[in-house]
Input
Amino acid sequence: MDILIVEDELEIAKLIQLSLEKEGFSCRISRDGISGLRMFQEQPPDLIILDLMIPGLDGLEVCARIRQNWSVKDPYILMLTAKGEEIDRVIGLSTGADDYMVKPFSPRELVARVRALLRRSLRQGGQNQVYRTQNFLVDVEQRTASRQKNSQELEILDLTSLEFNLLSTFVSNPGRVWNRSQLIDKLWGDNFFGDERVVDTHVARLRKKIEKDQAHPSFIKTVVGVGYKFEDAPVV
Output
């Protein structure tokens, strides 16, 4: 697995690199946002460890550009920063980050989070599954998701890796009610370390891409006091 580390503090970047390479990962280092974005475009990695406060382009801008312009590969993004306030976590996740760590951090925890993120894609391996509902088509093997645009045409959805996995989970079980813990287990696995409310952030981002009216969603419904459920008629 190829990992791109975008971190301007060389000692921290080297510590991350050493910790990950000991576990068998291949790592590259960039020390500013502009070169980090260029390295992503030249050789898309499987995962990016992205510091928030970096010169050139800050981490939020780099993250947003990657999510808007990825083509060959849609990497997982672990945002790393000295800031720990809730608003910073929410902003980071809302731009497309998959996870968030605050400095100072434990190298062992960092490795565990990286493994947990990469395990999401491995869980999809070997599944030749296609889920169909009245309005959606999700191909797990091809990692494509489409929405019925009209009676004759499908519209390809531009989703991040996590958004794809979330939609796939919903579409695979129409009508099932999922609480946050169940969705976390499905998407992050046993090594999740964050706040359960991160689920709400990613559900909101997915709604923006599939719902006509986010205030009154037709597909991803909130079940008050429990979690979420997906409503759409399955196609047998």
About this structure: The CA atoms of residues 16 and 107 lie 7 Å apart. The radius of gyration is 18 Å. DSSP finds eight helices and twelve strands in the chain. The longest strand covers residues 76-81.
